Amino acid sequence: MDIKKILEYQEKDRKVINLERELDSSEDKKIYQSMQNVAKDAQARSASLDKTAEDVVRDYNNLKKAFEDNQKLLDNLEKKDLDSLDEKGIQDLKELTNKIVSNLNYLEKKIMAQADSVKKILDEFDNTKKRYGVAKAKHSEHKQKFEVEKQKLEPEIQKLQAELASLEKGIDKELLSRYKAKRTDKFFPIFVPLRGSSCGGCMMELSVAQIEKLKKNGILECENCRRYIYLDN
Ligand SMILES: [Zn+2]
Predict the structure, then answer these.
(1) What is the pTM of this model?
(2) How many domains does the chain have?
């Protein structure tokens, strides 16, 4: 099996891989991608705060309404003509008044606590909005920087890819399709020489039977790292 051509192809492809790795490990890319997540989280938080705010505001309004109702009741009681009441009536009125006053006190505390919750939610809402804005700005700044980086490397990658495409014509189809299937796995190199009696990729020692098979077929897929081992001679 003639593997010289695929090795030549692999050497050229190594340059593409290195350029791709350079782009992949770009700090700007890392930053803009992480900012994308920060912005997404902030958006999700805003939506959930929105929902919570609705509930809290509804509770607040209900409490206010209850307070006003009690206040009205109290006002009406205070207008009552005491002279028309007997002692029992006065006693009842006093008890009712006390009850309403205690209700009002209770409601007032609840309302204050609820107002506090509303304020906290609004504050967090503000902070979340700021967080979103900062993340968005950072995202676009670093994405732009990354695009500049990419545009610098892109012509070189394209040139190499064109050269690879013309090399492909001379390569055994079976070998090429095996190569391409592995290349997507992101390990490189895909074809490695036999080193002594070990895989040149992961250095795992091959058995005598495996070496025999390699000699017979020209290449052997390593059981450990899944690269193709070839005879280096
Ligand atoms: Zn291996």
Answers:
(1) 0.66
(2) 2
CA of 7 to the centre of ligand 1 (A): 17
Q: Which amino acid is at 139?
A: H
pLDDT at 184: 80
Assigned domain for 57 exists = yes
Q: Examine residue 96 and state whether it is found in any structural domain, yes or no.
A: yes
> What range does the domain containing 101 cover?
11-170
- Residue 26 Cα to ligand 1 midpoint, Å, equals 29
Dist. CA 153 → ligand 1 center (Å): 31
Q: Classify 188 in phi/psi space as left (phi over 0), alpha (psi -120 to 50) or beta.
A: beta
Residues 124 and 199 placed together within one structural domain of the fold: no
CA of 203 from ligand 1 middle (Å) equals 6
Ligand 1 centroid distance, CA of 193 (Å):
10
The span from the CA of 30 to the CA of 103, in Å, is: 58
> How far, in Å, is the centroid of ligand 1 from the Cα of 224?
5
CA of 200 to the centre of ligand 1 (A): 7
Could you tell me if residue 138 is inside a domain? yes
37, 81: one domain: yes
**How many CB atoms neighbour CB 186 within 10 A?**
10
Summarised one tens digit per residue, pLDDT across range 99-142 is 999 999 999 999 999 999 999 999 999 999 999 999 999 999 99
Within a domain: 38: yes
Could you tell me which of 198, 196, 195, 199 has the C-alpha nearest to residue 228? 199
